[in-house]
Specification:
The protein is an all-alpha fold and about 70 residues long. It has a domain of about 35 residues: Erythroid Transcription Factor GATA-1, subunit A (Erythroid Transcription Factor GATA-1, Chain A), CATH 3.30.50.10. Helices cover about 25% and strands about 0% of the residues. The chain is built from one helix and no strands. Bound molecules: zinc ion. Zinc ion binds next to loops.
Length: about 70
Amino acid sequence: MNAGNKATVTPLRPKRPCPECGKPSARDTYPFCSTRCKNVDLNRWLSGAYVIPARDDEDETDGDAPNKD
Ligand SMILES: [Zn+2]
């Protein structure tokens, strides 16, 4: 017997824009739109983890910059 004939409603997931470029995300690279954006984000994250914010009270010393042309 067919008990409970429920209509299976699949809720539409709101499409999330790619956090990198704002394009609609792809399923494969969710929540990014492409592998590229995914890598960009990953790289930024990785580099950000390694970058130590240098806080030296150094003014921009522009003057003796070797100018090769
Ligand atoms: Zn993107």
